[in-house]
Inverse folding.
């Protein structure tokens, strides 16, 4: 009897201990505050407003913000910047409210604060996680110097549909690379100390699957199997959470027919119970209210749904502010649910040091010391050079000689307004270096003649839609024929032509989906005419997404893909065009031949009827009018030198569960200049219980090799790298054969096999 009691006590002690271990320790300062708070004060903390100082991404902007702060009805603000303005806002909260709780000040610092660096899709092409972290660290230093301590970044949505304009804001199509980028960015923003004055709370977004919007149309529905979600789309969000991200943003789309902001499976079962996330969740811009249009009820109903699902903060819509009390009175929600959300918001304030010092980020001496410094601009230039991808280089047209006679043409060659890229509201287009300026800076001895050659688009309707944040597409007063003629004459009088073509800044980004993702016809005509001159032509291609360029890719040209490079655009492009930096970027998205192939990505499955590679076959999985293969594969990117891969070796031919395996190859720089190469490892799980992708990226290593140099390059596959989510959503590996492919892109052929026992 005594023994039985004894063991029962032990068991109950064990369970209590486990429960305790799972729960985050409560923060005494926060608990003390909560004790004092009224219901209204708690609800006030859940309200995030914007006075409309920044870029409003919805049709609503908050009203009477000052009065609401003073009345304790606001937990945070965005669209307010500058230590003085932030101090003023904090003073309203601190001096005029009973409990003196400071505000969280947020912002979208997506690719640099004032020192804008390449759009995230471009930066991901560096495959350089140290540099990515440095970039985020610089952004945090600048933003915090300007009063902001909460960043709506990183955006880690996997995107496999380049029609979707927001593909520009993420790291592309691959969950493995996307997870590495997510982790590096969170680390860069937060640096393990949220209270340091130069770090900020990161916010992983948009949970979840926002990048899988149907037909590539922004905000559209998403419907996806759990197996696909877990294996292909969720890993980057989880990586950010594992890296300690302080907050998360729910997405606009629905998941299993319930919009993310009201989706309990997502916000509680997955996020809290499965992933152990202990930060707070903010909605996207009015996404709670948007559940009305989704068809889920009135504002009171959708706000209650969101709170009960696990949403903590309501961005701009004020549904929480105006309806939660009523819902509580009607028994539709509990006070505990409000308290839990409020606790999470207050904990973030505590962690960022605001409860200690509301003016921690309001040091007026900082902007001058920390923002747009020479050092920061140098980093932005370096980051841009690393983001460029040399898609082709016919006859080694690039790099150019610094004394060359160059026709620098195209609508983006001297277009300051289009250098920063989408989502750079804190950047200043006036500070951007144009390509024309960059060429003059880097190659002062070159003879450069410049002509616009074409409008970005000749269509005034498109121009109107794109020019929402300022003039991006300027339709010239001169006729398209005159523009083209001028460029052709400049080309004929030069040794070489550089044509800077592609998309204007706002042709990608939020609410900028396109059904035709080719280079606009006005510019295609220019490219054709330039090539017809017989002069060597290098295209510098600017865009926020993969484009369909089958015609241009066939031409005898060089193509340097530069995305939107940021404030140092012109200098960085000149660095690469003139060979001061040898390009090393690799695509993080597959480039389709046509829109009809979308979605297209490298980790595609085989199907039960795989098509032959070289021809059409009836009753096989192929098209009548296109090949299956993309125009340019994931991972592709050339260099001014060449690399040879050989000698693949595995540390073992057989391993057991729990063990790792090392893959080693010999890489030789066989060209005439030093260069960097991103060695990529793809893995095929030959037989498993659910249909496997043909191959998946599972490792990479960026290495520098002097000309003529050889190196052994190793990549270790961990136990986890062999795992996948099975039909029961368990993360497992299964015994059997695995094939490893190592090479310069996702078509890598150097291969070896091993067995998992
Ligand atoms: C809407 C966007 O979807 C989101 O990414 C952004 O953070 C918010 N607007 C706030 O600007």
């Amino acid at each position: 009897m005594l023994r039985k009691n004894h063991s029962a006590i032990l068991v109950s002690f064990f369970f209590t201990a486990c429960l305790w271990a799972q729960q985050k320790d409560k923060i005494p300062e926060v608990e003390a505050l909560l004790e004092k708070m009224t219901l209204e004060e708690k609800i006030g903390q859940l309200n995030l407003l914007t006075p409309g100082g920044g870029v409003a991404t919805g049709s609503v902007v908050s009203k009477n913000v000052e009065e609401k702060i003073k009345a304790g009805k606001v937990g945070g603000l965005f669209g307010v910047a500058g230590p003085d303005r932030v101090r003023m806002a904090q003073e309203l909260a601190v001096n005029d409210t009973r409990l003196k709780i400071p505000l969280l000040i947020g912002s979208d610092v997506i690719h640099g604060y004032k020192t804008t660096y390449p759009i995230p899709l471009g930066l991901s092409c560096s495959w350089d996680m140290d540099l990515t972290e440095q970039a985020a660290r610089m952004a945090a230093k600048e933003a915090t110097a300007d009063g902001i301590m909460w960043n709506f970044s990183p955006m880690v949505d996997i995107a496999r549909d380049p029609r979707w304009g927001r593909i520009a804001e993420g790291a592309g199509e691959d969950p493995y690379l996307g997870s590495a980028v997510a982790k590096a960015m969170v680390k860069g923003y937060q640096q393990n100390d949220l209270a340091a004055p130069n770090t900020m709370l990161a916010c992983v977004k948009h949970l979840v699957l926002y990048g899988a919007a149907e037909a590539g149309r922004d905000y559209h529905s998403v419907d996806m199997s759990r197996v696909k979600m877990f294996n292909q789309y969720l890993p980057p969000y989880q990586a950010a959470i594992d890296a300690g991200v302080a907050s998360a943003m729910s997405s606009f789309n629905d998941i299993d027919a319930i919009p993310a902001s009201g989706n309990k499976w997502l916000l509680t079962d997955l996020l809290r119970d499965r992933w152990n996330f202990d930060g707070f969740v903010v909605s996207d811009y009015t996404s709670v209210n948007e559940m009305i249009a989704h068809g889920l009820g009135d504002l009171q109903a959708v706000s209650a749904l969101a709170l009960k699902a696990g949403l903590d903060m309501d961005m701009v819509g004020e549904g929480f502010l105006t309806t939660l009390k009523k819902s509580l009175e009607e028994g539709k929600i509990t006070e505990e649910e409000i308290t839990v959300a409020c606790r999470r918001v207050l904990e973030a304030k505590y962690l960022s040091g605001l409860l200690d010092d509301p003016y921690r980020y309001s040091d007026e001496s900082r902007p001058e010391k920390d923002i747009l410094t020479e050092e920061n601009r140098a980093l932005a230039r370096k980051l841009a050079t690393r983001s460029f991808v040399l898609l082709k280089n016919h006859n080694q047209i690039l790099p150019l000689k610094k004394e060359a006679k160059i026709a620098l043409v195209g609508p983006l060659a001297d277009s300051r307004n289009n250098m920063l890229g989408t989502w750079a509201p804190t950047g200043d287009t006036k500070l951007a270096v144009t390509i024309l300026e960059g060429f003059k800076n880097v190659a002062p001895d070159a003879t450069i003649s410049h002509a616009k050659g074409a409008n970005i688009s000749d269509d005034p309707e498109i121009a109107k839609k794109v020019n929402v944040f300022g003039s991006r597409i300027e339709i010239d007063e001169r006729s398209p024929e005159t523009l083209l003629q001028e460029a052709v004459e400049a080309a004929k009088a030069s040794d070489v032509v550089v044509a800077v073509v592609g998309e204007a800044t706002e042709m990608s980004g939020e609410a900028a989906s396109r059904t035709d993702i080719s280079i606009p016809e006005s510019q295609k005509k220019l490219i054709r005419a330039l090539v017809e001159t017989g002069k060597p032509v290098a295209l510098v291609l600017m865009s926020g997404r993969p484009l369909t360029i089958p015609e241009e890719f066939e031409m005898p040209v060089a193509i340097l893909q530069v995305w939107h490079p940021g404030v140092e655009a012109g200098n960085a492009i000149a660095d690469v065009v003139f060979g001061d930096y040898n390009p090393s970027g690799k695509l993080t998205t597959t480039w389709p031949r046509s829109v009809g192939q979308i979605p297209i990505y490298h980790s595609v499955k085989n199907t039960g009827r795989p098509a032959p590679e070289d021809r059409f076959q009836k009753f096989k999985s192929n098209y009548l009018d296109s090949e299956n293969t993309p125009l340019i594969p994931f991972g592709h990117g050339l260099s001014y030198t060449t690399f040879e891969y050989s000698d693949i070796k595995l540390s073992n031919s057989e391993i057991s569960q729990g063990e790792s395996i090392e893959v080693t190859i010999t890489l030789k720089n066989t060209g005439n200049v030093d260069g960097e190469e991103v060695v990529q490892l793809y893995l095929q799980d030959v037989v498993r219980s659910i249909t496997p992708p043909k191959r998946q990226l599972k490792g990479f290593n960026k290495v520098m090799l002097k000309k003529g140099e050889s190196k052994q390059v190793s990549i270790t596959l961990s136990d986890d790298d062999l795992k996948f989510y099975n039909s029961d959503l368990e993360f497992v590996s299964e015994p059997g054969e695995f094939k490893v492919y190592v090479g310069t892109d996702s078509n890598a052929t150097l291969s070896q096999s091993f067995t998992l026992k």
